């Protein structure tokens, strides 16, 4: 049976950064396969993670939690047969809930070691009312308050209190017995998604047999637009574009080739915050940016 970790969290919470740091610090020398699910036809995270992991499978069209049960299970079966990974990581879309992924993994004989939910402490107040974000928290047994370097102690404590109360309110329950799937959770406070060894050592393994919950509508309140660039951009030109984004753009990510920079730049922007600290030394594809806008 293959051990599996599910990485969930709202748009821009730091899931891909966590996976990059996890590969370096915890999984060196292991055959680790990653399944990445993103809305839209362009898989940014998959292209980035291929520089860090042995095998990366992208499921970029549609959402696992809504329409992709069959595709996900088929892809996972093929991955197990062809690659025989020692460990599986599944990064869900930022607008997806992890429960259907948990069901599929159990159906295919995987042991769910942990469901890890990342929370963007700096911007949590901007999405804390979103139902998907709340169910992501309630469906996880490892809660990670990320980007703590960007907030003060009072803000961090406020976010922690809200997250704990949301976990208790939205806790995933067995449909037939009404018993909680998780008896407890572990909370970590970190930056750049860096976590200790114990998170990946199996101490949080899910033992409960899962059953489908009551069906409910699951609507995505986001739309994606992809912009391609045939020539390298000037950095100031790029910054000017970011500074003049429409107010309904809540997420921007992509890979850019810039003038006078030898390596492609990984772009991450969410809720007004821009991060360009990661580069791809051997990227040969086109420059592109994915803009995710809210239509609430």
From TrEMBL:
Keywords: Chaperone, Hydrolase, Nucleotide-binding
Gene Ontology cellular-component annotations: cytoplasm
CDD domains the UniProt entry points to: CobW-like
InterPro entries: CobW-likC_sf (IPR036627), CobW-like_C (IPR011629), CobW/HypB/UreG_nucleotide-bd (IPR003495), P-loop_NTPase (IPR027417), Zinc-reg_GTPase_activator (IPR051316)
CobW C-terminal domain mapped to chain residues: 226-292
Catalytic activity: GTP + H2O = GDP + phosphate + H(+)
Presence of the UniProt keyword Hydrolase in the record: yes
Entry-linked SUPFAM superfamilies: Hypothetical protein YjiA, C-terminal domain (SSF90002), P-loop containing nucleoside triphosphate hydrolases (SSF52540)
Position of the signal peptide: none
Entry keyword Protein biosynthesis: no
Pfam families (UniProt xref): cobW, CobW_C
Residue stretches making up the CobW/HypB/UreG nucleotide-binding domain: 3-163
Molecular function via GO: hydrolase activity; nucleotide binding
Superkingdom field: Bacteria
PANTHER family to which the protein is assigned, alphabetical: COBW DOMAIN-CONTAINING PROTEIN, COBW-RELATED
Family indicated by similarity: Belongs to the SIMIBI class G3E GTPase family. ZNG1 subfamily.
Annotated function: Zinc chaperone that directly transfers zinc cofactor to target proteins, thereby activating them. Zinc is transferred from the CXCC motif in the GTPase domain to the zinc binding site in target proteins in a process requiring GTP hydrolysis.
Protein name as annotated: GTPase, G3E family
Species this chain originates from: Hydrogenobacter hydrogenophilus
């Amino acid at each position: 049976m293959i051990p599996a970790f599910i990485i969930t969290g709202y748009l821009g919470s730091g899931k891909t950064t966590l996976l990059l740091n996890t590969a370096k610090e915890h999984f060196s020398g292991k055959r680790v396969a990653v399944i990445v699910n993103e809305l839209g036809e362009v898989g940014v995270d998959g292209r980035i993670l291929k520089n860090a992991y042995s095998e990366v499978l992208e499921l970029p069209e549609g959402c696992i939690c809504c329409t992709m049960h069959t595709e996900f299970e088929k892809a996972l079966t093929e991955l197990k047969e062809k690659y025989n990974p020692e460990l599986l990581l599944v990064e869900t879309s930022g607008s997806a809930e992890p429960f259907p992924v948990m069901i599929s993994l159990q159906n295919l004989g995987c042991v769910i070691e942990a469901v890890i939910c990342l929370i963007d402490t700096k911007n949590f107040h901007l999405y804390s009312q979103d139902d998907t974000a709340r169910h992501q928290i309630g469906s996880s047994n490892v809660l990670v308050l990320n980007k703590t370097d960007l907030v003060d102690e009072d803000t961090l404590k406020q976010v922690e209190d809200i997250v704990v109360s949301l976990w208790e309110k939205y806790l995933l329950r067995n449909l037939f017995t009404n018993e909680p799937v998780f008896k407890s959770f572990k909370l970590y406070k970190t930056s750049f998604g860096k976590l200790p060894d114990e998170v990946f050592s199996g101490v949080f393994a899910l033992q409960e047999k899962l059953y489908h919950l009551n069906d409910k509508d699951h609507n995505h309140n986001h739309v994606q637009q992809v912009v391609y660039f045939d020539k390298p951009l000037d950095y100031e030109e790029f910054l000017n574009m970011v500074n003049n984004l429409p107010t309904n753009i809540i997420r921007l990510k992509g890979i850019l080739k810039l003038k006078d920079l030898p390596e492609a730049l990984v772009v991450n922007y969410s809720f007004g915050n821009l991060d360009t600290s990661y580069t791809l030394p051997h990227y040969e594809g086109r420059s592109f940016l994915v803009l995710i806008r809210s239509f609430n």
